[in-house]
Amino acid sequence: MNINDSVLKNEEKAIFGMRSLYRKYGYSQYKMSKFEEYDLYVRNKDFLVSDNIISFTDTNGRLMALKPDVTLSIIKNGSDAAGVVQKVFYDENVYRVSKGSHAFKEIMQVGLECIGAIDNYCIYEVLMLAAESLRSISAECVLDVSHLGIVSAVIDGMNVEEPVRNALLKCIGEKNAHEIAKLCTENSVSEDAKNRLLSLVSTYGDAKTVLPELKALCTDDASAACLDQLMEVVTALEASGCGDVLRIDFSVTSDMNYYNGIVFRGFVRGIPTGILSGGQYDKLMQKMGRKSGAIGFAVYLDMLEDLSEEGTPYDADTVILYTENDDMGALRSTVRMLTDAGQRVCAQKAVPEKMRYKQLLRLNGKGVEILETNA
């Protein structure tokens, strides 16, 4: 069955497009229950987009939750197998506070997870699918990519205490160079180490410009190895045609208790915050008793409500007014004729308040009278 794009909302179009995209690359659909044990989410609150969780007690006395996340369930219900990579995608309703409304909402979330013997190809493939997911939503999109291994190596060289480290990470995410310099001075960080971090924070742009600059910053073995991995993945992304949406941005940070390696965030024009977020989360796997590596992302479809419905400024192409005395057969034939011609038609006895339409018609005994035209 063909589905006309004009009758779909932005989030519905996105779901159809991404579902087809992921299947093309061998990802199978994951389905889960609406409910999960509350303890699973409480133990991993920092991993969640929102730590507000709707909970209830079931008939067995267990404390349950309406799922605010899908990734945790996939990890919990999976198992490790040597050399095997589990590739799954999902489009599931999750229940949490929406960024747009700041109230609890049932939100359709789309995403994918690649779990198991993760290598650089797996990382490339997931980032490529993230870029193509953004493109399926808008041609004007950007995928910002960072490597936590490089960030961690630079901060490790400062030999600061954990609270200072966390404060620096927060400043990196905010690109707050002034506060970074202040923290370094207060904690007797060397001038060279401070300037190295400030240079990293200010590094932003397309890969061809940025990667050569990073070589001067990644002088130790740990950061150099991470840079080599980043360069290999970025080169593959450029070769696959994703270079135009790719940007290197070390302000993309995530909780290092859960994430490691490459992390990324996606944006589309018209929405002020990121609508896609992902990265490697080997540390979360370890915390949940798994030995495998993992990388994945989620697309927050509730954010698409802020995206203008380009090309569909009208609720209907034509509104046809009729009365109870009009011939139903004539009304039915007129509606059918217009819908067969590809129009969206709404038959009404009165025009609904705030309805947007191209033309307003009235059915009468002699045929159809044009009352108003807005196109």
Q: What does this protein look like?
A:
It is a single chain. With 375 residues, this protein is an alpha+beta fold. It has two domains: 5-306, 2-Layer Sandwich (BirA Bifunctional Protein, domain 2); 316-373. The chain is elongated. The protein has helices spanning 10-24, 38-42, 71-77, 120-137, 148-156, 162-174, 177-186, 191-202, 207-217, 221-239, 282-287, 328-340, and strands at residues 28-29, 35-37, 55-57, 63-66, 85-97, 104-116, 141-147, 204-205, 246-249, 260-268, 276-280, 293-300, 316-321, 345-348, 357-364, 367-373. The protein contains twelve helices and 16 strands. The longest helix has 19 residues, at 221-239. The strands form three sheets. A nine-stranded mixed beta sheet has the order 1-5-6-12-11-10-7-9-8, with helices on both faces.
Global geometry: elongated
Structural class: alpha+beta
Radius of gyration: 26 Å
Strand content: 25-35%
Q: What helical percentage do the residues reach?
A: 25-40%
DSSP helical segment count: 12
Instruction: Report the order of strands and helices.
Output: HEEHEEHEEHEHHHHEHHEEEHEEHEEE
Annotation keywords:
single chain, 375 residues, alpha+beta, BirA Bifunctional Protein, domain 2, 2 domains, four-stranded mixed beta sheet, 12 helices, elongated, disordered N terminus
